[in-house]
Specification:
The protein has 130 residues and is α+β, with helices and mostly antiparallel strands. It has one domain: Tctex-1 (Ribosomal protein S3 C-terminal domain, 2-Layer Sandwich). The protein is built from three helices and five strands, in the order E-E-H-H-E-E-H-E. Helix 1 runs antiparallel to helix 2.
């Protein structure tokens, strides 16, 4: 992933993001906080609906910020068992697109790792409509 760039107003952007990093972080953290509360405990049977709600909330907020792009949002919920110190995840993605206008950004949320046994990783990709 390329290093952050600055918009014309000096705001930090991720790669070629149409939305500033701070706003992307805000969108992700608000969506996650509204769906997974601090008292939520990891339950495998709930992960599908949580992921659907998270992705839809993030997409809605992204489109409200900038409709000049198409967006793709991936959400991964990872179970965390404090008694098992070995855990991990590895993910790789690739794309064939316009490096000048399209891009991807990742967000890791550990808002409940110790308390409720889960991590969430979000990946947001944008593709210019034109």
């Amino acid at each position: 992933m390329s290093s952050p760039r600055l918009s014309d107003q000096g705001v930090k952007l991720a790669s070629n993001s149409p939305i500033p990093v701070a706003k992307l972080e805000e969108i992700c953290s608000k969506a996650l906080a509204s769906i997974i509360s601090p008292s939520t405990i990891y339950k495998h049977e709930n992960t599908s609906s949580w992921n659907e709600l998270i992705v839809n909330a993030v997409l809605k907020a992204l489109i409200a910020e900038s409709s000049a792009n198409k967006y793709i949002v991936y959400s991964t919920i990872i179970q965390h068992d404090p008694s098992n110190v070995t855990r991990g995840i590895h993910s790789t993605s690739g794309a064939y697109w316009n490096n000048e206008k399209d891009g991807m950004w990742n967000y890791s949320w550990t808002g409940g790792a110790e308390e409720n046994g889960l991590f969430v990783v979000l990946s947001i990709a944008w593709v210019t409509k034109n």
